[in-house]
Specification:
Number of helices of chain B: 11
Low-confidence stretches of chain A: 235-239
Largest sheet of chain B: 2 strands, antiparallel
Number of strands of chain B: 4
Mean pLDDT of chain A: 90
Structural class of chain A: alpha/beta
Strand order of the largest sheet of chain A: 6-7-8-3-9-10
Order of helices and strands of chain A: EEEHEEHEHHHHEHEHEEH
Oligomer: heterodimer
Order of helices and strands of chain B: HHHHEEEHHHHEHHH
Strand content of chain B: under 5%
Radius of gyration of chain A: 17 Å
Low-confidence stretches of chain B: none
Radius of gyration of chain B: 19 Å
Mean pLDDT of chain B: 92
Shape of chain B: globular
Strand order of the largest sheet of chain B: 1-4
Strand content of chain A: 25-35%
Helix content of chain A: 25-40%
Chain lengths: 239, 293
């Protein structure tokens, strides 16, 4: 399998303080990869660097064979990267339909309508509530809208940042059913989640991040959840 | 009764101009978080463009000339100045807008002289008509109707077009809009273009009352528009419009019904209202969804 995303020695700094330290990782076409780690480990910063939301102080991001390190966020989205961000960040001033259409705004009208039909089939509630304000949906429905909105751009790689954050356990289960459905449909997914066992159970491979560094990586079958939890509970220096 | 209708028309007419200026400021603020003080010079620029077109009897051509000048001016400001400051602090952008405003005002003085220039408005702007049994200035009626049509057109643009929806999204959460593939440069340019068009229309009606334009001609409407934006809630488009009309009504009320000894202090009273609003509701009357506000 060829890698569609290659992150090489990427460092992210906020006011000179490193949040991500020389991280390298790859995602292959059709793969489901998880990044796990404690709060503040640098997981979201890494996703932001992949999307170009924060500049990489060092290293490079290659997507579909092209070095996109110097490309803008919108240019990366148009090339097939999509991020469903932490906290969902639904546009409250826009209706559900407008949120979705904006996600596919740079596509042709025919493609947009086709994708709209696809996400409506995946998440029927978004069709029922098309004219409702985006933030008037329940938490779980908002998460579905956030995922659907990211899918509207027709991504080759979908980045999901903490999709279960702030949701009750029952809703989390529903959200992960949706993610499972995406996996079955062949989407390439890079998931960030604090819940190690859940993140590992869905992914084929995982990266364990602590202190801005990758401290473990490999097929999830070879990574025991308990061992990983021990790893990011302060023993990163051992590795 | 006729006096009430007369004052209502005056209030709506003055409020229309303030609302247009305030909305122009609010559109840019909602996207960039910048209060563009050089908006005053866009209004003045439109005034000089109309002076240049003086003798033009088709009033639409005069209006269009002013609008094109201020819209192009706004786009030039964005391309030449603000695009370079995109990653700078808000304070830097604010200072830049003040600096550009001073440079432009000085340039107007050098190019056109310090003395006022007479804009040759068509004769109808000085005529009165009989409406609802009351004689009112035709200019006031046209101001109100044009503003109403422009606000409706802007509403359609914001609701029905991709760029309009992108503008609303960017106003709420710019980086999330970019994550939707919305081109940041295009959205910012659209915001400045809308702002410039609004400045041009406001200029046509503002300068019509005096018939003259001078280098600092846009300063007073800018100040009133800015007050309306703060009262309405920085970044809130509806707040800017509501407060613009409110400010027009307040000034008209004071001018019409306050004792003669008070009317010279109209601006003082307006600033007093601004202070009260800032103290009681620091975020303005209409809360903005913008992260910047």
């Amino acid at each position: 399998m060829g890698h569609i995303l290659s992150v090489e020695n990427v460092t992210v700094e906020y006011h000179g303080v490193p949040a991500v330290r020389s991280v390298s990782m790859e995602v292959a076409e059709g793969e489901f990869v998880s990044i796990v780690g404690a709060n503040g480990a640098g997981k979201s910063s890494l996703l932001h660097a992949i999307m170009g939301l924060v500049p990489a102080a060092a290293g490079s991001v290659t997507f579909l064979g092209e070095d996109v390190t110097a490309r803008s966020t919108e240019s990366r989205v148009r090339r097939g990267l999509a991020l469903c961000p932490e906290g969902r960040r639904i546009f409250g001033g826009l209706t559900v339909a407008e949120n979705l259409r904006l996600g596919g705004a740079h596509c042709s009208r025919a493609t947009l309508e086709e994708r709209l039909a696809q996400v409506h089939e995946l998440f029927p509630v978004l069709k029922e509530k098309a004219s409702a304000g985006g933030t008037l949906l329940s938490g779980g429905q908002q998460q579905q809208l956030a995922i659907a909105r990211a899918l509207m751009s027709g991504p080759r790689l979908l980045l999901l940042d903490e999709p279960s954050q702030g949701l009750d356990p029952q809703t989390v289960a529903t959200v992960f059913e949706s993610i499972s459905l995406l996996r079955e449909r062949g989407y390439t997914i890079l998931l960030v989640d604090q819940n190690v066992s859940r993140a590992l159970s869905y992914a084929q491979r995982a990266y364990v991040v602590a202190g801005g560094r990758v401290i473990k990586q490999g097929p999830t079958s070879e990574l025991a959840a308990s061992e990983i939890e021990d790893a990011y509970l302060g023993t990163a220096s051992v590795l | 009764m006729s006096d009430v209708v007369q004052q209502l028309v005056n209030a709506l007419s003055l409020g229309s101009i303030y609302a247009l200026v305030a909305l122009g400021l609010a559109v840019v603020f909602s996207v960039l978080g910048l209060v563009n003080f050089a908006h005053a010079q866009l209004i003045t620029l439109a005034g000089y463009a109309m002076w240049g077109l003086s003798g033009e009897t088709v009033w639409i051509a005069l209006l269009a000339g002013g609008v094109v000048a201020s819209a192009l001016g706004a786009l030039a400001l964005e391309r030449l100045v603000f695009v370079r400051l995109r990653s700078a602090s808000l304070a830097a952008m604010l200072l830049a807008s003040v600096a550009v405003g001073i440079i432009l005002q000085t340039a107007f003085q050098i190019l056109f002289g310090a003395e006022p220039k007479r804009i040759d408005y068509p004769a109808w702007t000085g005529e009165t008509v009989n409406a609802l049994g009351v004689r009112v200035q035709l200019l006031d009626l046209v101001t109100i109707v044009t503003t109403g049509l422009l606000l409706a057109a802007l509403l359609l643009f914001l609701r029905r077009t991709v760029m309009g929806v992108a503008l609303r999204a960017a106003a709420e959460d710019f980086s999330m809009a970019r994550l939707m593939g919305v081109r940041a440069g295009a959205v910012v340019a659209a915001a400045f273009a809308v702002s410039g068009v609004l400045a041009g229309v406001a200029a046509f009606f503002w300068f019509a009352s005096s018939g003259i334009v001078q280098p600092d001609g846009g300063t007073v409407p800018l100040l009133k528009g800015f007050i309306a934006v703060v009262i309405g809630g920085l970044g809130s488009l509806s707040g800017a419009v509501i407060a613009g009309f409110g400010l027009g009504a307040l000034e008209t009320l004071i001018q019409a019904y306050a004792p003669g000894s008070v009317t010279p202090y109209t601006d003082t009273l307006v600033f007093a209202v601004l202070l009260i609003v800032v103290v009681l509701r620091p975020m303005g009357l209409v809360a903005s969804k913008s992260r910047a506000a």
